[in-house]
Amino acid sequence: xxxxxxxxxxxxxxxxxxxxxxxxxxxxxxxxxxxxxxxxxxxxxxxxxxxxxxxxxxxxxxxxxxxxxxxxxxxxxxxxxxxxxxxxxxxxxxxxxxxxxxxxxxxxxxxxxxxxxxxxxxxxxxxxxxxxxxxxxxxxxxxxxxxxxxxxxxxxxxxxxxxxxxxxxxxxxxxxxxxxxxxxxxxxxxxxxxxxxxxxxxxxxxxxxxxxxxxxxxxxxxxxxxxxxxxxxxxxxxxxxxxxxxxxxxxxxxxxxxxxxxxxxxxxxxxxxxxxxxxxxxxxxxxx
Amino acid sequence: xxxxxxxxxxxxxxxxxxxxxxxxxxxxxxxxxxxxxxxxxxxxxxxxxxxxxxxxxxxxxxxxxxxxxxxxxxxxxxxxxxxxxxxxxxxxxxxxxxxxxxxxxxxxxxxxxxxxxxxxxxxxxxxxxxxxxxxxxxxxxxxxxxxxxxxxxxxxxxxxxxxxx
Lengths: 288, 165
What we know:
The structure holds 2 protein chains of 2 kinds. Chain A is about 35% helix and about 25% strand. Chain A is of the alpha+beta class. In chain A, strands 4-5-10-6-7 form a 5-stranded antiparallel β-sheet. A 4-stranded antiparallel β-sheet of chain A has the order 11-12-13-14. A 3-stranded parallel β-sheet of chain A has the order 1-3-2, covered by helices on one side. In chain A, helix 9 runs antiparallel to helix 10 (about 240-250). The longest helix of chain A has 25 residues, at about 265-285. Chain A starts with a strand and ends with a helix. Chain B has 2 domains: about 5-80, Ubiquitin-like (UB roll), CATH 3.10.20.30; about 90-155, DNA polymerase, domain 1 (Orthogonal Bundle). The radius of gyration of chain B is 16 Å and the shape is globular. The interface of A and B includes residues 5, 104 and 190 of A.
């Protein structure tokens, strides 16, 4: 790691003020589970590291049946995994966390940090996207709230401005008779993921009122596959229709070849995982 | 320009320490280079292998991926702190009796992950155990014996002496 000055802050206001002052010379540190690796590889060399990990006001979960869930950006992956509240209200999130990296990483890494890091292989973005989540970005000048699906721009790039800090994740309560599921594939669970898919199905009178599908690791961002969703929406969903949607998702995906898998293999896996996740989401929707 | 060192206070294996450290070192560097505690191993240094696992405020973490400045005010337990009064921790004793290591390089990390796991979930199923130990790689591919050792401790808490520390 190159030299930097470490600045620990205790309030969001203080963090925003330092960030406005140092701008591109500073990086924000939360758990650092991704950032430290980049620093060690000298891929980043900030002059200042602003440590927000211990800001109490960014570590919370508030749930209201009408408003949904509001979660502070510093909530750790492990907290999500273990939360009885989430297991009851948004079970797909603790389920997904079980396959995020390793226990050690989940213990120290934060949800906000993962999202801002914007690695398209990240597991937690696709379920948050299908759940219609929003994120709040705070800065010295105020705050703005945007749909999480509009947050990601490219590999490791988001719309966050250099003076902004992701402060909150907001997840609305899904409509009645909704099921959500996430499926991923990697050669070993704690290893690099090759593809992932989250599906949400809402039923009304036996037909699919709404469908949302988001993929990870098969494009430069965690992406929604809108044409695949459209195939399901408004129709009674059966295996044949799910197969068509999975096929469509596979063509919408835009994967790359790297040391872990070829683009062709990722595309095939996208199909398989969309099929599995959607079937599971459908079963869950029926069971509610 | 040399940046000033900063003072941190951290309790390591029960002993409070005050240390002046460079701001750009990891917890692993702190343990190995400042305190001479070489049980946590430096291996992948990229948050992958788990050989550097220690317990930070009751949580297993990969010490190569925690900035040392972040442990100011916290408690760290390393493999050197497991044995009490020259009596091995039950997990250590079980690892020996089950011959749960080959070259031994990953063993300190595995012991610390196992301790954190059992402290939180004293009766894990084998499935839970295997899943929660996934962050600790064994390059010798010895993935069976330590599972048996940890399950043995979980199922027979008194067999290897009362659990402490």
